[in-house]
Amino acid sequence: MKRFLMGVLATLVVGVAIGAAVVYSGTFDVSADTPHSPLVHRLIETTRERAIERRAREVAAPANLADAERVRRGAGNYAAMCMECHLAPGQANSEIRMGLYPAPPDLARPASTPENIAARQFWIIKHGIKATGMPAWSKGGIEDEAIWDMVAFLQQMPALTPGQYLALVESSDGHSHGGITDMKDMHGESGGTPTAPPKARGHDNSDGHAH
Ligand code: HEC
Questions:
Q1: Pocket around ligand 1: residues whose beta carbon is below 6 Å from it?
Q2: Do 122 and 151 form a contact (C-beta atoms < 8 A)?
Q3: Given the CA of residue 45, which atom of ligand 1 is nearest to it?
Q4: Distances from the Cα of 143 to the Cαs of 40, 41, 43, 154, in angstroms?
Q5: Whose CA is nearest to atom 32 of ligand 1?
Q6: How far apart, in Å, are the Cα atoms of 8 and each of 12, 143, 147?
Q7: What is the pLDDT of residues 136-188, one digit of tens each?
Q8: Residue 100 CA: distances (Å) to CA of 47, 62, 70, 131
């Protein structure tokens, strides 16, 4: 028994020493352009999925998620705050998305985890995910109702053509989620929503964004 305990202790000490060596030596690769090893990736992914699944169980989706008004309002906010990372119908990729690790999922495609999807999306949008590019939008002052509107829109987006997407965004109130009121300071002169086709947008100012 004593020998066994000594063995456990020795293993622990070696484990802590290896951990400290990894942390302090500076050899761990934190760059976003090299992926994690399969083991680390698996560990992080499982931790994330279990944590979200557990918390999303507590979230009750409103009954009127298919409501056209919700979808319309959600479209404008999605285009203003999310599209750059999560794409839109007809948009193949974006510069920021190509560089992010983990890559933001393409939300214009049907979700790969359809179970409890609305609650899951609500929880993730509200709280964000640590050490990824996904912000906690509640910290930016976005209210729960506006988050549900975006969730409502997300349920529809995979079925939209690029034209239908643009029409819906144009019909919405643009960027209008409550919370932060001075949109001019936050989002440029108009404070509105980018409505031009995704491909044409963002690259029309040759002196500005030109690489
Ligand atoms: C700066 C980039 C960025 C922006 C902007 C962003 N996200 Fe994300 N989002 C991410 C990343 C990265 C992930 C994946 C995190 C991970 O894999 O752990 C993610 C994950 C998600 C997921 C989970 C998808 C799934 O089922 O796994 C949802 C839903 C989501 N984001 C919605 C939104 C919405 C809605 C907005 C706008 C209000 C938004 N995101 C803005 C980067 C972003």
A1: 48, 78, 81-82, 84-86, 100, 102, 104-105, 111, 113, 121, 124-125, 129, 132-134, 137, 150
A2: yes
A3: 18
A4: 35, 32, 32, 17
A5: 125
A6: 6, 50, 49
A7: 999 999 999 999 999 999 999 999 999 999 999 999 987 777 655 444 444 44
A8: 20, 32, 30, 11
